Amino acid sequence: MLQPRLALTRLHLPFRCLSSASSRSYSTAIHGKETPPSVESSASTFDPSIAFAPPPTRDDAGVLIRSYKPRTPGIRHLRRPINDHLWKGRPVQKLTFPKRGQSKGGRNNTGKVTVRHHGGGHKRRIRIVDFARTAPGPHLVERIEHDPGRSAHIALVRSQETQRVSYILAAEGMRAGDVVQSYMSGIPDDLWRSMGGVVDPGVLAARTAWRGNCLPLHMIPVGTLIFNVGLRPNKGGQLCRSAGTFATVIAKGSNTQAAQNEAQTEEGAEEKKPLSQREQQKQERIAQHITIRLQSGEVRLIHKDCCATVGVASNPNYQYRQLGKAGRSRWLNIRPTVRGLAMNAADHPHGGGRGKSKGNVHPKSPWGLPVCALQFMQHNPICDGVNIFSRRNLATRLVLSGRSTRLWLSPESVTRASVVEVTAKRVPVVALLSSLPLSLTQVRICYFCKY
Fold first, then answer.
1. Where is region (Disordered) located (predicted)?
2. Which residues of 356-383 are buried (b: 16+ CB within 10 A; e: fewer)?
């Protein structure tokens, strides 16, 4: 039997303290209240056949932010996410090392500032986080800890086979006592026997695609939320590692033979049209990769053997925090950001002058490069590369260096021969010219250079 939540709105304000019911948003049991098992008992009675964790979900119920009574000006605007489940003690000593001068001041070996707005900060120890998670077997989550070097939380896990401890990125909803497992080394023997020695994709996904488990991308079902995504096989995760970030698996590579059969049996085709060598190579490359969508809307092709963790990165309310005072920024190794308009003329192109005028100067960076002047963006670039990269201000840098990504031609002069003749003088490498339509008025050229 559940005890309903009692509303205190009808009670008079002076008599609310006499009520024994507390304001809560859930129902509680009157009799038979059970205490959750401790970490030690879970470790002693571990059963690998139990369900590991609930499926990955996003908590959209509300933002849990703690505010404080303004006893001092420094805490008047202080807002912090509510994370009462975090470990209050110190980290494991052998899994950390001290941060002694590693880019604390933003200087290089000559003493020049290479990264602005860095300096100071409280002393800290860097946590050694296992992003690859190649150790097989189930791991028990002992506790969730705060990492001062990142926005997401980390989990201390202990292997049930070797009893070794390590830090991993915690998924949203992961708590002490959960059991997670990595399948980067292959499918375990007990899972093979439970499926009868036959790989059923549905059964395999139901047994492995749980929150906090690390799997190769080809084992994750379409539509699953993932984080800590790797970019290369046999390497740790590099994408979606910040607090609350995730990616979505939207498609998997198609079969080359199926694509060839579809091309041969298309409508109106009297003769069989086998795939060309180039199209066949493209289909083979697509079959080896998984398509994911990032939160920015960018779509990338990642190799199917790269690692990924099922779920959403922990601490999703990190974006709603407010530090409240400038001193907390200095504690976090963040120096002030000064506007160029407030500087002298010798320090910034916008500096100097009388009053607050920037002197009729177009917006520029501190080094004199134009910013926000023109919109240099690559719309629908022609590229047969596997990964769809999105580099900031790439087109702007190419224009400033004399290598524009735009090439304007009149409609009547657009031919493959003219494109080859004109572009050979402007770019070092020209690719995919055979796939260019003849009716384009604006031709995009791909650059195969290392930036």
1. 28-53, 96-120, 257-284
2. eebeeeeebeeeeeeeeeeebebeeeeb
Q: Which amino acid is at 416?
A: R
- How far apart (Å, rounded) are the C-alpha atoms in residues 351 and 338? 11
pLDDT tens digits along 259-316: 656 666 665 555 566 778 888 887 788 888 999 999 999 999 999 999 999 999 999 9
Distance of alpha carbon 31 from the chain centroid: 44
Residue 281 has φ and ψ, to the nearest 5°, of -65, -35
Q: How far apart are CA 161 and CA 164, in angstroms?
A: 8
Q: Which helix (H) or strand (E) holds 418?
A: helix 416-423
Q: Where are the domains of the chain?
A: 129-257+284-314, 374-451
Are the CB atoms for 116 and 106 separated by under 8 Å? yes
At 391, the amino acid letter reads: R
* Architecture in CATH of 129-257+284-314: Roll (2.30)
Residue 2, strand partner residues: 29
Q: What is the pLDDT of residues 320-362, one digit of tens each?
A: 999 999 999 999 999 999 999 999 999 999 999 888 887 788 8
Q: Is the pTM of this model over 0.70?
A: no
Report the helix count and the strand count for the chain, using DSSP H and E.
8, 20
